[in-house]
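We emphasize that the prediction below concerns an isolated chain of 209 residues; any contacts that depend on oligomerization or on bound cofactors are therefore not represented. The input was used exactly as deposited, without trimming of termini.
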Amino acid sequence: MRSSTKMTGEVVRRPRGRPRGFEPDAVLQRVRDVFIEKGFAGASLDELAEAAGLNRPSLYAAFGDKEQLYIHTLRHYGEHGVAGIDAVFAAKGPIDKRLGQVFKGAIDLYTAPPYPRGCMIVGTAAVEAPTRPKIAAAAAELLQATEDAFERAFAKAVTAGELAADPSPEARARLAGTALHTLAIRARLGTRPAELRAYAASLVTVICR
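Result of the prediction step, given as a token string:
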């Protein structure tokens, strides 16, 4: 059944099958958990629809096919991750302490119950990238956005005299991005949070030397 509401002389139709109170962000967060647990190939459409709280036609109407839904989910995951990094670096405090906070937040996410999640890129996108170029491109964009966030922070630290100009902010950013991926892999393999935090502390020392 279609419903319509007149507004400023136009007819606005609610898409067929979409329930009232539909919140894309909430839906993407729920299906993200399915993709992270089972991977792109292993996640069935029925499981994704159930997690989303939508029937399959509504899911298609809102996000497209399974690959498009995955890409929407990956970008949503990435946008929130980059925003979190920016927020930590926008706060006051020494650059090494703030980098440590970024790594701690990542570890908390990667090891959150009920199972070690790791990172969506490392755990799922990297598997599909060789045969699914659209997923590869979306993952590459997220990697670049993450490194850009690190580079902005390190550039400000160089300007403020906290860090030397060599290694460059770009080089430090690549190291920080690589550190996140390494922590994600170790988390996915079951490394305990305490060990991951100790490992991250050693990486902070190298990156911010």
